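Figure 2 data, in text form.
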Amino acid sequence: MSADTAAAVPRPPARTASTPVLTGAEAVVRSLDLLGVTDVFGLPGGAIMPVYDPLMDDESVRHILVRHEQGAGHAAEGYAAASGRVGVAIATSGPGATNLVTAIADAYMDSVPIVCITGQVFSTLMGTDAFQEADIVGITMPITKHSFLVKRAEDIPGAIAAAFEIASTGRPGPVLVDITKDAQQAEAPFIWPPNIDLPGYRPVTKAHGKQIQAAAQLIADAKKPVLYVGGGVIRARASEELRSLAETTGAPLVTTLMARGAFPDSHPQHLGMPGMHGTVPAVLALQEADLIVALGARFDDRVTGKAALFAPNAKVVHVDIDPAEISKIRTADVPIVGDLKDVLVDLDAAFRAVSRDSAPDIAEWWSFLDGLRDEFPLGYSQPTDGLMSPQYVIKRIGELTGPEGIYAAGVGQHQMWAAQFIKYERPNAWLNSGGAGTMGYSVPAAMGAKVAEPDRVVWAIDGDGCFQMTNQELATCAINEIPIKVAIINNSSLGMVRQWQTLFYDGRHSHTDLNTGHGTVRIPDFVKLAEAYGCLAIRVEKEEDVDGAIRTALETNDRPVVIDFVVSADAMVWPMVPQGVSNSYVQYARDHSPAFDEQED
């Protein structure tokens, strides 16, 4: 698709006597109103200033002033991931726009529907290296579903309407609308709804019937089937349809990091999370399967390990709304392109039909998997240094908050522990940066989630490293009365990097100590920092104080709460599959570091 809206959105029809004439800036705000937008996150600057003037008077759209544009982007992501609605971020040109890039890339990797509106310098100055000029359309083209450049006021309604259509349909994702300052200042008839024409954009939603029948037959014939569930199930809002198919087939099921909550953890068919830090039953179920039914999953390297050695005896049914994902990494025996919500209903009915006379016998398969569950339950060992176990802290947060809460994690060890030790019973309860692995995601994403779902408890489970990247958004939360809860899992280090250094670099901890925790200078002191931001701040250093601090946080809803949980730096994430080897070599350890002696080339 062209970057210029003139190619994607035709000129509006001629003005009539009743057609209002608005500035481009007013058209931006009116378009957001008519699209049902109620909340946006942004930071003004020179090139977007015209939009901020009518935004001040608008009573329908709540603008939340962030302290950094990256925070606006992640907040829009959290808003979208928690609610299913399109998140919106606004920034100015140049550095304002480029500060959004990390969040845009993050949303692209995790299929999050957001629209980013940026100001651009005057069209007459573009290409001259003008003050705060950056080619944000060119910069973001590889990491958006589409990037619009708007140079005329009359094209603004169509561009914004098209952006929302593209972001929220098919495989969701980020869309950028870059608007020059002269387009914002000029006047034009405001015509709504605009005539949107998106040549070539025709997402396939209804799957081919023969492919559905072929998939159903493979499931009926399989002796060792596994439903491999990815984040696409959540984006498609297909959790109920997934549960129906799972119970109809009786097949075991695994949920990826992005799919946690798509299927209840309490369900007996759920084996847990697969991948590098997945449960042993989930990892080995995929590895030993004779059929993998991939549903909105993309065979990410963190799930497959060494792709050539992944599930060597399995046939593959791959269902995805994005045809580019089919057979990209693992060739699909039965490729199915379509909307999962519809495909799962059709597949359920087809399976019932083909298995009416002879239900598949997978009792032996379940006996093997149940044996793995009994032998390798998910657990952790108590640290030997006398400090708290981070797994215990996170587990208690989940138990005391319950499944109706929302949990937004940063990236690293605490992210894996939050995925492992909190029980997820519903979709949209677990928010994290899966594909990009963006440190700094948690606090602003939690902020966005709380704005979208104000009646839910929202936790930001963060590491001391991640927290220092975006904690300035606590000011945004305090001033705008967004009472998130922040749990800093403070091991005074870049924990996941430190774990790899311990295991693979002879314990040489090069530049991973952060000096924030036990026995250090505590720079910064997270309690003092949080108090300076207007938050209730608590430090916890003993396990007997964990529950009390969590309960205090749950009872405090007039301001954000930050709890500095001082935990052991020696705790590691287990199980673990070392990078570059077969998943058959998954290592399960509680009390010692295993020897990785069977690595593949």
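Caption note: The longest strand covers residues 114-120.
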